[in-house]
Fold this protein.
Amino acid sequence: MNTFGRIFKISIFGESHGPAVGVTIDGVKPGLSLQLDDFTHDISRRKSGAKGTTPRIEDDVPEIISGWFNGFTTGAPLTIIFRNANTQSGDYERIKDLPRPGHADFVAHQKFNGYNDYRGGGHFSGRLTLALVAAGVIAKKVIEPINVSANLISVGGSSDIEGKISKALESRDSVGGIVECIANNLPVGLGEPFFDSVESLISHIVFAVPAIKGIEFGSGFSAAAMTGSQHNDKFLDAQGRTSTNNAGGISGGITNGNELVFRVAVKPTSSIGIPQQTVNMVNGKTENLDIKGRHDACIALRVPVVIEAVTAIVLADLSEEL
Amino acid sequence: MNTFGRIFKISIFGESHGPAVGVTIDGVKPGLSLQLDDFTHDISRRKSGAKGTTPRIEDDVPEIISGWFNGFTTGAPLTIIFRNANTQSGDYERIKDLPRPGHADFVAHQKFNGYNDYRGGGHFSGRLTLALVAAGVIAKKVIEPINVSANLISVGGSSDIEGKISKALESRDSVGGIVECIANNLPVGLGEPFFDSVESLISHIVFAVPAIKGIEFGSGFSAAAMTGSQHNDKFLDAQGRTSTNNAGGISGGITNGNELVFRVAVKPTSSIGIPQQTVNMVNGKTENLDIKGRHDACIALRVPVVIEAVTAIVLADLSEEL
Amino acid sequence: MNTFGRIFKISIFGESHGPAVGVTIDGVKPGLSLQLDDFTHDISRRKSGAKGTTPRIEDDVPEIISGWFNGFTTGAPLTIIFRNANTQSGDYERIKDLPRPGHADFVAHQKFNGYNDYRGGGHFSGRLTLALVAAGVIAKKVIEPINVSANLISVGGSSDIEGKISKALESRDSVGGIVECIANNLPVGLGEPFFDSVESLISHIVFAVPAIKGIEFGSGFSAAAMTGSQHNDKFLDAQGRTSTNNAGGISGGITNGNELVFRVAVKPTSSIGIPQQTVNMVNGKTENLDIKGRHDACIALRVPVVIEAVTAIVLADLSEEL
Amino acid sequence: MNTFGRIFKISIFGESHGPAVGVTIDGVKPGLSLQLDDFTHDISRRKSGAKGTTPRIEDDVPEIISGWFNGFTTGAPLTIIFRNANTQSGDYERIKDLPRPGHADFVAHQKFNGYNDYRGGGHFSGRLTLALVAAGVIAKKVIEPINVSANLISVGGSSDIEGKISKALESRDSVGGIVECIANNLPVGLGEPFFDSVESLISHIVFAVPAIKGIEFGSGFSAAAMTGSQHNDKFLDAQGRTSTNNAGGISGGITNGNELVFRVAVKPTSSIGIPQQTVNMVNGKTENLDIKGRHDACIALRVPVVIEAVTAIVLADLSEEL
């Protein structure tokens, strides 16, 4: 459902065009220093505004309504909400029977018997990642001195990221990309064999981020073409440091003290300015759909801070257990 | 920890060289017809014996010790155990202070303060996948008429699978591969937005399988190089069928009625016949390690039935909720 | 932590004197008709105002910030918040180092290292039961036609409830009581053997309600003095109806089709107008404490609607599974 | 379902007349010294044999099939099974359509569509408490130096326990009792406000024990007849010790450093030697039932060690979190 984690546990709620989106974090330790300004940097990294991002701009000012007292976390559930202000729901009324290709409109309508809030994708909207980023800000405090950093390393199959985005904008199309995430200063021993392996937990929450199509750790898909003698990381010392890092920092599901490294594939934004074929869910007829809503030419631009957030959330959950 | 699922819930236990490995499945509906023979086919697919698999051969006869009465499931927890018989623990005594590169030996020793059963990888062993396969047999019954099928589609970067394995065997090395899994006859509506997305749940359990380095759904990593107009799947009818299947059968985390398709990367077996550099965990000195334990030249050969099993387990859990 | 339930899952948050208290309910089925007025009746039953209840009166107007669209639930998480307005936090500043006998002040300070919001009990406050009552309003809709009804059946050991409360008010003291809860129209089969027995789940959430000291089902504590021939309920028909109901409607943890009956003991309100001995947490010295905060002479008066709510929450969770 | 706990997590399985009953404990810390003899004392306390207990005597020898190596726990899931040997299933074949009053036969048949193992109560049998006792042995090790002790304090409403049992035996009837449980050496701070209150968790698992009809903490039901000035426990020092212990050692759901005290009501054994009226589930006709199975005249005699076990299990789960 909408909850993730065992000890540092987050629950997200909200819709793109409803009153608010938000998150409750249970299991935050008491005494973490926390100011509203602490959210500013990561929230602005997620925000639109740059070339290739949607013109819908929200203030995204967090309101902390529980679990915070005198500038510190209290140990009680921490709830943070963000009011939705800049909604243009009329854009969606017009196309509510026409599922947008690549979006969740069709499955949402089927699964929720037509009661889903269809405006802007409703609860399926990427706007919910704002709640993840807010939770990530807290998680990053919890896991200090572990450091998590994600970057967009290619767009449209190329490292000329700028060029690919310009081209997509010109053709009113969109384009995908790859984000790499690295975590440093990890202790040996986070994670469990099998179901609570670090890969299991990270991939679980990474695929909760809209538009992700794949994930690979360390050597990833290239491992399939390697031999064991190439792939095995040689031990250098009794702290477990290795000469190579094909393991991506994880052995048997557990952090091994080397850098945690993984990459995710982000699909091109589903909303594009080019008319597309769809089917009217009411009368079953094929129609041409011209999406007028505001959207990103390359959603991957806004993904790195979200990937950092969800990674920190997993590590916070695992760290609390140590 | 060692439990997965919310309604169809599996818990695995056991070690490679302990008395047994096994699984308890809670939430199995009563009245499923079940005979011991029902396990034979999938267990034999997981078994070694073929070229490229380990010479350790176990009988792998399931013993059902609860939840089964008069040839049917009862609705009570179903526990299945497999006795370990063909263990040669002496192989491991010799190298217990020498963590094998690519294995979990080092992290297991650190995390469990040296109390872990180090023989054959202990609880980290791939032998635990036998418990997953057994649970998969039950899950496949639960999800009928949904059909899940996985196949090895490449080894060592080539579709000449036979050739790559022979080469690895000759050089006492090992080699990786890619497994593709497809599920048919899925209803629209399995899964949830965000944390219980089908991708989240499948990737979670897939990364519980040892040796998996990456997973991608539908277009997967190739999506990162595509444009939205290429990637969006056009709707063909009001049942949600689409002309292409870049979504891999999942939209917004929810099955959309098309084929579920994903691929996983399997690393080369970590145990190889070639001496490797490691570090003695007791005295911190570098040593050369010559693994004499029995192992697979290409563990990917035995992975497809495991991937089928874990996929069926996820779908059983989601189906029970419908 | 602060989450309860498996399918109909509630998470509560907030503090007595913080910005708000609230609840997120995940797993609400889509299409339940819901208006703000639907909360009025139960919220007013929980409210103070009657003789014996606290003079702190809040408006308690629910604000639904997610999961609600066009007058229906959407199937997405439903979040309801209540702003705190009528707080007089100064009352608590004066006594923040003096734990009030019978309250959680001492343990809260110890467990949360002094970072807890101590005003009005903070997150431990009975005000959080407002969130439970709001969730109960939704749960009651989910379980229709099951009907849940709780009543105060004794106060201060007597059925002259009015008299006992007057006496407590006169002496600036408080008094306890017993609440009985009955649920009708239950199907056979809710609940599970052992850990998800109906008694386990109801008692779990009932003891989450502040001031509850005991719970008994059907014959309850009187069963300890009975013989089997007296206690066993005779079957009357193949629908499972019985001549007596010592079982309280539950056999082997599972509803048996008869009325569900249980009683809970409510302790006297801890805050009283009489000075009490306490210990200063800073200097360790004994002090006399004169509580000036507003409080109830008999909190049991306000408990029945809370007990109804939590019972409905359990039944909603179990019903969804059927 | 059949799993309890968050960190020290137990899963039970098995049937009275199936091959075995057992338990898997996940989250046991590595390095606990453990010998098979460690189980002997508690298992013998649960065993029958004394006056008033059933003549069915099982060896109850534990077999540890995972998570145990060289005399220590490994940190991997610990699975313990007990083979059923002394079963006389023929006793039950005769009455399989006749639900025994006070037992779960009727609901089990309805809930599991007749596929339940009806012999000796199947999965509903009190024999499953053997698995709880085994888990309790481990839990008691985890929580050291916390000490848990439960005793039978009354039978049939009297402290002349011996007399009441003799009388029940003579009349081929059965009789109920009250068990009190006390835990010492508890730290301040175990438990959480609301849903993970110590009372919530203990009552949850206590009601998983068959035959329990009520539970009360500290003052319990007598609190309902008291005033606040009588009930509030005065603080004696800054460690939180109080002059009285009406709280039963728990404030706001959290251990307060005083003795944890609670009492449970145990109903008379449902199986009695006196013929009883029941209804044939196949033809709906009223019949007289003469139970020939072996049973206890006072099951409460065997309950104390089970109550200790489940209490230790809760405390182990909470302690691991500290």
Q: What stands out?
A: Chain B has one domain: 3-321.
